[in-house]
Predict the 3D structure of the following.
Amino acid sequence: METVNKIGLDTNIFMGIFLGEKDKSEQSLSVLALIHEGVLEGVVSCISLIEIATLFYQRKEEQKAKKAVNLIKSLPNTTIVDVTSDTALLISQIKVSEKLSIADATVLTAAIELSADAFLTFDEDFINIGCIPCMKPGDYIKLL
Amino acid sequence: MIIKKNLKKNANLELSKNLLEKAGIEGKITILVGKNEIVIRRIPEETGIIEEMVGLGKNVFTKDSVTLQRELRAEWKR
């Protein structure tokens, strides 16, 4: 291992775990375990926290919304990236160049801004992204 | 306390629990040996953060995680 690898995590990585989706959560949990141990560093956009909280709030699960966000914020070796005026231009550039929605571009830009090695997601809309390798957690683990 | 370890490139070492107890250090200490750096990390005591995440949203949602994400992001277009 040359250095500690940094990886961006999409919202669905956490939602898959919260939902207990067997096909997804096993590989996502392996990645979170590596982050917890300090083998990897995690990068999460604050947009993902908003999305996760919103999904729980929409189901009137206020306590679970708070717990979900606090659990992610408590993950060691993980940086939560805020949207700032400094990142506005980069988000816009990524949105246009990669033909993404603003939300997708904002979440992805957090990983790019912090020089992550890869962005992990189960959303196949990210397959053709050129500015950073995007893949499923299981595929990333195979590369380690 | 001075700890001597034989380090090799690409090693991922973890100090023994017994050693850490003697030194009065809680949690785990890992040593990652890279090409140009050696990273020593203290990992806090296991708090069960990851275990608490599993199934938190079970029986709350009826759709899969990617669909939920896509539907939420589609709302930006409204």
